[in-house]
Input
Amino acid sequence: MLKHPKRAMIVSCPVKMDDGTVKVFTGCRVQHNDSRGPFKGGIRYHPDVTLDEVTALAMWMTWKCAVVDIPYGGAKGGVCCNPKEMSRNELERLTRRYTTLIVDLIGPYRDVPAPDVYTDEQVMAWIMDTYSIFKGYSVPESVTGKPIILGGFKQREEATSRGVAFCIREAIKHLGMTAKKSTVAVQGFGSVGWNAARILHDEGYRVVAVSDSKGGIYNPGGIDPYKVFEHKSRKGSVIGYADSKQVTNEELLELPCDILVPAALENQITRDNAANIKAKIVAEAANGPTTPEADRILNEKGVFIIPDILDNSGGVTASYFEWVQNLTRERWTEEEANSRLEGIMVKAFNEVYETSKKRQADMRTAALILGVGRV
Ligand code: NAD
Output
């Protein structure tokens, strides 16, 4: 059962383009498993979207929700399109047509979509509105990642990175390290990377390197992520930041540091560079940053890996918080939300850690043992 999605739907979305022509876009929604609760997963708009990839991502969501023990199953959706070449109006028409075609599959107790690659809170607002038109009343709990004014969750943006920081805090406790004496390199300075660098800096870690798609910067004496953010806002990249040496993204991964946080893309740590990684901890903020061969090499070297399905699950946990608040019509304070997130992440980390000790497995295998076992 677990090897196969429960349901997969392919849809064709005819969209009137701004020039008056009609284009047909192919999309899908794959629902992997809902044994533990409604299907949950993002919708991505990308030219490379395929049914196979979306199916794999849907399964990933099932394990992720089970590892952090939130009452959701796993799903994923996608539309094969290039949003960078489409106007806002074209994207709105595409989103509303796609939602109309999958409307029977989704809903607050059935399947709750969220943003993913190249979909944002505006796209979620269009989905919510289209779903609500079908119902005849407003249903904010039908999607997560909405604008705050429509019932979105204020801390969603930083929740993934806060979860990463909680996992690192637990890991260094087990490894006898301290925040003050630990150095950190972060690959990727987007939403997850920037927030992770900022939160870790605030907690006393020394951030020595950060990077974006154009390259990275390194200063063994420490870098202030807030100033780098300001620099990037002005110049469009972290490159050129004063008081630092320029490094490539490949070099960043191999720099001397205690904690490496890949927060950019998949397949960054490979069999070609894994042996050169000097970090004691690899905290996988991105999805799938380590290839299976690299995973083996890192484990042989004794690197402590916090696997993606655990490390970045603060994001889906924040989605869960949004949904719960929408369903109950409650509003939590920032402190309440952060303390609930901490409780869930710390419990999940320690359950994975205990499983790894008990079953003599690495952390990734332990996370899967726990997740698959719960499902
Ligand atoms: P983002 O688009 O905001 O940021 C990505 C960053 O990576 C950008 O700074 C970009 O310049 C950089 N980048 C792109 N190519 C790079 C390269 N070759 N080398 C180094 N940096 C490169 O995306 P995000 O939301 O921060 O997501 C980052 C990762 O985290 C993705 O794998 C995503 O799936 C995962 N993730 C995100 C969330 C979330 O809440 N946003 C939740 C779970 C997992």
